Amino acid sequence: MATLIAQPPAPAPPVTGLDVRLLARTNALTNTTSGLAPSHLQANLLILPAPHASDFRLLCARNPVPCPLIGESAVPGAYSALTSHLPNNYTAIASDVDIRRDAPRYNVYVDGRLTKEGCLDITAEWQHDHVAFLIGCSFSFEGALSAAGLPPRHTLQNRIVPMYRTQLPLCPAGVFTGSTYVVSMRVYRGKEEVQRVRDITRAYHATHGEPVDWGWDALARLGIVDVDVPQWGDAPLTADGRRPLSEAWAREDEIPVFWGCGVTPQEAVVRAGIEGVVMAHAPGHMVLLDCTDADVVSGGC
Amino acid sequence: MATLIAQPPAPAPPVTGLDVRLLARTNALTNTTSGLAPSHLQANLLILPAPHASDFRLLCARNPVPCPLIGESAVPGAYSALTSHLPNNYTAIASDVDIRRDAPRYNVYVDGRLTKEGCLDITAEWQHDHVAFLIGCSFSFEGALSAAGLPPRHTLQNRIVPMYRTQLPLCPAGVFTGSTYVVSMRVYRGKEEVQRVRDITRAYHATHGEPVDWGWDALARLGIVDVDVPQWGDAPLTADGRRPLSEAWAREDEIPVFWGCGVTPQEAVVRAGIEGVVMAHAPGHMVLLDCTDADVVSGGC
């Protein structure tokens, strides 16, 4: 007869944004944050030398749909004190934070070239005049879409949302010239569903809001050459998961819908060839915040 | 010997925004406001039925460069009380105002079609649920450019700035879909001048800010077919005023520079075919405000 031996309890899943930050800070979490701490905002991260901060702030202000600015370092060099740019100046977007360690993985660029990919922290690279910027992420409205019975297909198929470079120019700002929107794409069926997803995502101002375009003719308007070949994420598939999306048998019914994407600001930094050390989260490895999706929609966060 | 007879004094030129508003209110001014009350903000006007107000507000928020929202009716139906959207919530953007009479001339649209052009007031058309929106105008930074020794050529030639429809899409918002940027164009010489006009206009966030594009190759990016044929304003000319701009002998030296334009929101309303009675100022016949250009740049207005 086998002896009963007490097993150590399985670690509790992270529930709050702080739970996820602490796991990342201690390198107990090094994977994607997709699906963690549901309903808590996940943010794109971009860290620039202070001389470029005002131009980047202006780039976000002039292009709020792809680059919704949520918050930034309270002062240059601050990695644990953040100022909110959300309505009501809610300051506790992340009350216990170390921006150098709280994303699971980071990328480092020097003079516009990627020099480290997926490193676990950036404590060695952080300099006294670095300014961290937090930018909204569409994970937020995906929860709302699922809750409304309109789950994005890539979530059902356990794939990463497809993202595309476009020819849609950003409004330039100072040193940030020559960049274009990056968009994410989700497929919906029929005009009524498109109207519903427009209505549901509209209120998410801080996380890209409603779509920027939709329909098969949007591909030409946006300058997307091949819907089956996204520049980031996984290729989109038909509903049965067996064929490329472009082979969808009823194009009138399957409608690609495009939203502004948080990869846009990273592209802008690279395209502008910003001098000095620039850092960002590794795609998919976001910084979790204390605010929830509901806070953003209601303007409370 | 001729008898000296006292002549009535010539009317003093309007100095403040209120001076201009009172002249327009009494129909003593029915012409363009260009050059009046120098340094005071001139605003584009757009008046919508309340059911479309939130979508229009969102259109402006998502497209702040062509549609910089300065203020709006304090409540639906209010034509003499305005709420500011400028930094610091400066409320006295126009302290004694009747938005139905204070622009020299108006246009009226019904169900998206122009039904009255250039009428002197809209007191008969104003309904209890109309909401007036004030949108920034590039007259502001033109003063700054002239003060810096870079006067726009059209002002030297006493012509109206050329404005063009583009293929650059607005981010849609609710009922406002399918519209594109309108841009204004000013010619400068050489890359250094372009950089200087970018730097000078950058701070004018509430009045379109820095350019959206520049250079001869910008025409193709923006979808402008013929630089000599603007859709509004006067055709641009060479520096000697004798030839169409496209015949400029040194294209490398003469550089067209494009800014977001306040005609954009009117185009958006027409393209969306908004139902009901929509009103606007007649182009060039702006509403003068109490704020000055300096207030906008400093964030004080």
From TrEMBL, chains A, B:
UniProt keyword Lyase, yes or no: yes
Bilayer-spanning residue ranges: none
Keywords of this entry: Lyase
Coiled-coil spans in chain: none
GO terms classed as biological process: glutamate metabolic process
Pfam families: D-Glu_cyclase
Highest taxon of the lineage: Eukaryota
InterPro entries cross-referenced by the UniProt entry: D-Glu_cyclase, Putative_hydro-lyase
Keyword Cell membrane tagged: no
GO MF, one annotated term: D-glutamate cyclase activity
Family annotation (PANTHER family): D-GLUTAMATE CYCLASE, MITOCHONDRIAL
Family listed: Belongs to the D-glutamate cyclase family.
Protein name (database record): Uu.00g071150.m01.CDS01
UniProt source species: Anthostomella pinea
